[in-house]
Design goal:
4 domains, alpha+beta, 8-stranded mixed barrel, Beta-Lactamase, 6-stranded antiparallel β-sheet, single chain, 27 strands, Alpha-Beta Plaits, disordered C terminus
């Protein structure tokens, strides 16, 4: 096939396109299946079979786009049909040919495009099979290009079949003229089954020259029921328009059996019926389709079903079973494996884990790899929570066993989320979403455990989604504000610092604390930007107070994990200090255990840089999770914060009191300051002071205050703001 890309064939190309008789969307399942296959293989939202006419491109088949056509002058495909291979545009906004294109600047907001020409045997490009995404993509590889070209060949295969059927519909003479040069084997037989026409492609496929076969029974090369099958296909009312085909086997002159696809048509010649058969060798197509199907449905690394096949099997199970269980599994500590052994070592671990998971399930169950280090188990017919628990626990235990990769011993763990049909969802989407939420809960509660889905998880997720839609507007409209909670000396009541706490003045819901919107904020894209604003605002306000009142305040600011992902946290903090004139020693940044667990490797360098500048680093809520003692040595900390849950229970709970003593001992041993949160009574304050804690914050002294409210209190009493409160308890100390 000689490709023609210079545009000189335009008239010939349009003539060829007209032979297919397509002017609108094709309602044919074969095209829908190919489009769906392409979407699964390449994970794109939009796939189109685009045919390019003189003035427009129109979409004969597709998914993900509401429009059916565009003008040719803005068509990406009009460019692609003039290229010898696949046209790939990683980001249309960076391409001078397309950055001002209305399909880029407006709907559908094309960023990524890849199009493979649909090229006839004569080298004429009718259009393309194209992939579109609304976000840029890089790394569309040579294998990707080959796969797209193979899919385009399958699409053209179907289009060619349609062309021949339409030609047959028009007239026998036109049909035979087209058939003479067709790459498909085309045979005509009379009512008695004798061959009346035999094109060159039939001779090549079956090994019989036309002179040797004309006038003979078609049964020479086909099974005895061939005529009956052809007659059935040809006499169906919608055979010509639906592209109906069947698969049979025919026999080559050498005796070799060949699988073919058969389509048929009928006409009358002098009142007698005649039949036309189109035979297409599907040996190569079957191999290609099987390879592409596998690519779309099987994970190439682990040989497990992928997300697409899991969803298909789940939908089948929901239609057939009274009970279904889905268990989502995520590996704990896998990032460390990739960091230490590289991706080849990580791949080896994933392959071993895949085998272990398969050993944990029953015959007929499905283990799938969802992507990365996440797997899913589909257990049809299982509705018992105890049985699901047993399987989840066996998965966690099996994955957690030591394994050896490249001579190194590896220890990883697993977390699992469980959802049951119909209790936790009645559709595939609901059930997978419920299992995902349960998995997220398991990881949030310490990992290496399983959790079942509960209704509050979905309510929290819905609330998070609702808030996510408002957060950007709230930031733009300056609805976020900072309140400041005083931090007080337990010895003399002096004001030592404040903790800056975020609040949202919602126009309808009033003043919201972070508990209402923090999950949505941390899951979105606004967290780094808002976190930078908090640091700048807190530094500026503290500098004002220090200069105005001469109060030696330090301010504590809670960091988001997303601020570490940007890679420029230390620079942003330095800029905020420089802009406000605040000394680095007057700023303390607070990190939580959850941030450490999620962003461990990303945190050490910026924290060390900040510590070297003189910025304080506090470990918030210490003792509430799984923080190890090694963290106190590894991270450049300056202070531990005793969580309010221990303070609240310390007077009545010896274990909580013991934890506080241990934290204070650790702090002193590591030369770290210690502050207690949530102090609400004088008895708590006095007990903390006697145990050696020197600083506290809580409602006993003050709730978090708006800047102007704290301003008034400082103006009234200066840095001895809480001296009276201390005198009430220990008059001898302050007399």
């Amino acid at each position: 096939m000689q490709e023609r890309t210079d545009g000189s064939d335009e008239e010939e190309r349009l003539t060829a396109l007209a032979q297919y008789g397509i002017t609108d969307v094709l309602e044919e399942p074969a095209f829908d299946r190919l489009v769906q296959l392409a979407a699964s293989i390449f994970n794109v939202p939009v796939v189109l079979v685009s045919l390019v006419e003189a003035e427009r491109q129109f979409f004969a088949a597709g998914r993900g786009l509401d429009v059916c056509e565009t003008s040719r002058d803005i068509s990406f495909c009009a460019h692609a049909i003039r290229q010898p291979g696949v046209t790939v545009i990683p980001d249309a906004r960076d391409d001078v040919r397309f950055r001002a294109n209305p399909l880029v600047t407006g709907e559908p907001h094309i960023r990524f495009y890849a199009g493979a020409p649909l090229r006839t045997a004569a080298g004429l490009a009718l259009g393309t099979l194209c992939l579109i995404d609304r976000v840029p993509r890089s790394g569309f590889s040579e294998p990707d290009c080959r796969n797209l070209q193979d899919l385009a060949a399958l699409v053209l295969d179907r289009l060619e079949l349609r062309r021949l059927e339409l030609a047959r519909q028009a007239s026998q003479i036109r049909f035979e003229n087209i058939a003479a040069t067709s790459p498909d084997a085309i045979i005509c037989v009379d009512d008695a089954g004798r061959v009346t026409f035999w094109n060159a492609a039939a001779a090549q496929l079956l090994g019989y020259p036309a002179a040797r076969i004309l006038g003979r029974s078609i049964n020479v090369v086909a099974p005895e029921h061939f005529s009956d099958r052809l007659r059935y296909l040809a006499t169906q009312d919608d055979a010509l328009t639906s592209g109906r085909t069947i698969e049979i086997v025919v026999t080559h002159a050498s005796g070799r059996v060949i699988p073919v696809e058969l389509s048929g048509s009928m006409w009358r010649d002098h009142g007698r019926p005649s039949f036309g058969a189109i035979l297409r060798d599907i040996t190569g197509r079957r191999s290609n389709e099987e390879r592409l199907f596998r690519l779309a449905h099987i994970d190439s690394l682990t040989d497990l079903p992928n997300r697409t096949m899991l969803r298909t099997r789940l939908e089948q199970a929901l239609a057939q079973e009274q009970h279904v269980c889905v268990i989502m599994v995520d590996l704990d500590g896998f990032k460390d494996v990739n960091d230490s052994l590289g991706h080849s070592g990580g791949d080896a671990v994933l392959s071993v884990v895949a085998g272990r998971l398969q050993e944990c399930v029953r015959p007929g169950d499905t283990v799938a790899r969802m992507g990365g280090d996440e797997f899913a188990l589909l257990l049809p017919g299982l509705g018992d929570a105890a049985a699901a628990t047993e399987i989840a626990d066996s998965v966690i235990a099996s994955v957690s066993k030591l394994l050896t990769v490249e001579g190194q011993t590896i220890n990883i763990g697993a977390s699992a989320g469980i959802a049951l049909f119909p209790q936790h969802g009645v559709t595939a989407r609901e059930l997978l979403g419920s299992a995902d939420l349960a998995l997220y809960q398991a990881k949030a509660e310490g990992r290496n455990c399983h959790r079942f889905f509960t209704a509050p998880l979905r309510e929290a997720a819905a609330s998070k989604r609702a808030f996510q839609g408002e957060l950007t507007r709230a930031f733009r409209e300056s609805e976020f504000v900072l309140f400041y909670q005083p931090q007080v000396s337990l010895n003399d009541g002096s004001l030592l610092g404040t903790e800056a706490l975020l609040r949202w003045r919602h126009p309808e819901k009033g003043l919201l604390t972070p508990g209402a919107f923090l999950p949505a904020l941390e899951a979105g894209l606004l967290a780094p930007q808002l976190g930078d604003w908090i640091v700048r605002t807190a530094c500026r306000q503290t500098a004002i107070w220090r200069e105005r009142y001469g109060v030696p305040l330090q301010v504590g600011v809670n960091l988001f994990g997303a601020q570490f992902r940007t890679g420029d946290l230390a620079k942003k903090v330095r800029d905020a200090l420089d802009a406000s004139g605040l000394s680095p020693s007057c700023l303390e940044l607070e990190i939580t255990e959850n941030i450490l667990l999620r962003h461990d490797e990303q945190m050490i360098a910026p924290l060390r840089e900040l510590h070297s500048m003189g910025v304080g680093i506090a470990f918030d809520d210490y003792g509430t999770g799984y923080a190890s003692l090694s963290m106190l040595k590894r991270y450049p900390l300056t202070r531990l914060k005793i969580d309010q849950s221990f303070v609240r229970a310390m007077l009545d709970s010896p274990p909580d009191a013991a934890i506080i003593r241990a934290i204070l001992h650790l702090g002193h041993s590591f030369a770290l300051d210690v502050i207690a949160e949530g102090v609400e009574t004088w008895d708590q304050a006095e007990r903390l002071r006697k145990k050696g804690c020197e600083v506290a914050q809580g409602y006993l002294y003050s709730p978090a205050l708006a800047p102007h409210d704290l301003d008034r209190r400082i103006q009234r009493k200066g840095d001895q703001l809480f001296l009276d409160a201390v005198r009430d308890v220990r008059p001898a100390l302050v007399s």
